[in-house]
Amino acid sequence: MSSFGRSGAATAYMMKMPPLADKRAAAEALCSTCAGPIYSQGLNTFKVPMAMFEVNRAKVVQSMLEQDPSAKGLILLMGGMQTTRYDTDHEPVFRQESYFHYLFGASQYPDCFGTLSLPDGEATLFVPSYGVEVETVCGPSPNFEYVKDELGLENVHDVVDLKAFVEQEMKRLDETVDESSSNDDLGNEEKKGGGEKKRSKLYLLKGLNADSGNFATPAFFEGIDKFSDMRDEESLFRSISECRVFKSSAEIDVMRYTNWVSSMAHVEVMRQCKPGMMEYQLESLFQHHTYTHGGCRHMSYTCICACGPSANILHYGHAGRPNSRLLEENMMALLDMGAEYNCYASDITCSYPVTGSFTDDQTHIYNAVLAAQVKVIDLLKPDVSWLEMHREAEREILKGLCRCGVLDDCGKDLDSVIENMLDADVGAIFMPHGLGHFIGIDTHDVGGYPPGKPARSERPGVRKLRTTRQLEEGMVITVEPGCYFIDPLIDAAMSDERQKHFLTERVNDFRGFGGVRLEDDIRITSDGCENLTLCPRAIEEVLDVMSGGAWPPNTDVLPEMKRRWATCKRGKMEFLDM
Hints:
alpha+beta, globular, 35% helix, six-stranded mixed beta sheet, single chain
């Protein structure tokens, strides 16, 4: 036996591995019953089947083989590293690297590496062992057999064995092809010198994130230079990024849970919100609810608790604007907060008056944004253009601004005037961000601008779209129209020859208003969509909750939102009859 417990006969090894399709089918069956190892935070938190990651692995391997049916070698990924804060020994709470988590589900294990063999898809995780000094402070090193059973993997080894394992595996895979090809004509020709045998490759992750502008970092270990002529840094990124765009049913269940937890937390904050509070108290209430009742240690992103004028800063809440404003009478609150569970995100925004009652102006702006959200959700289905959905949202918001006198319809046909406004990029004045983005393991999930898909527009507003793809079944995307009154944008529009004649003096009444955004997470189905978010949206729903009413309601007064009502019981999501 070799050092990793494999027999010397490579063909015998290949025979013991089930076909990739069978592995995926078996994993999907385990997901459907939540059998096998699970991730859970205990109590009533959701039970995530580890077989979900087996499905992910099978998808990626299959995608690699579709790119190149003769592909062979090792996929190698490096997990997230435990860092310290600047020059101190303080360790921030660890969060796994997203691509690594997608394949291995090792959310609680830093400093790891993982491999998948091609073409069979066998998974091997490498975790570090620690000496007595570290174990005294942090507890025992991981037990390899326990980790293997916990995560549902074929193999788990010490990270110090990585180099030797890669060397052995690359050699084994070459030998496997040699033996399997010995009986076919091509193999015989190659043995006679009539052709060159295809060598195994080391597939590493490297590619550009279209949102951040950063590159995924290829795995590195001491001695990897030995494989420099075998490296492939293109194929894996193409496959795994595209696989992450299309969520499995098990992934949808996890995201349904994160949306349920976050929606109920938004409702709790909505009930507690009142003048005299600080924005950070709303953030604290949300985080408390999602961790206490949902087991969500991480937020999907920095909470945005923007009240009054703060709401015209799209990503308020960062270090320079740390949710520190006092809530005052007649302010609108724009709260963009979402919790993460087992590294799967939610991204939800609610807007409402801090006093629990809407003024006329607040009603006008809120209903314009709600109309945009309802319109888009009604239209969502496969083959719909996301770029056109952005335009539909702009149309509804511009109509609302005409109705409240901020924009001048010139006494003409409203629809034709709206098209003229779009041509002049007036929509971008009031909604200077994209309509939404893919969401999954990352809030701004990958796959927005892959090769061969529509490129990013250069037009104001739409150039902020994080994708311009046509929608397909299995995608999950946020729908987040907004209307903001941002002084520099208004000032620029009032001196722009194309735009200034559309604006009226009434726009000045909204300086300092802030803005309104409504954001839900939407799953694209075979014939339409499903709204995973369960927040109050109709004004009557918002007012009822803020006055102490029950949620979920007994009756859905806004079925156009396509909310599929659910709750978590005994670690599983159960649907409710309304």
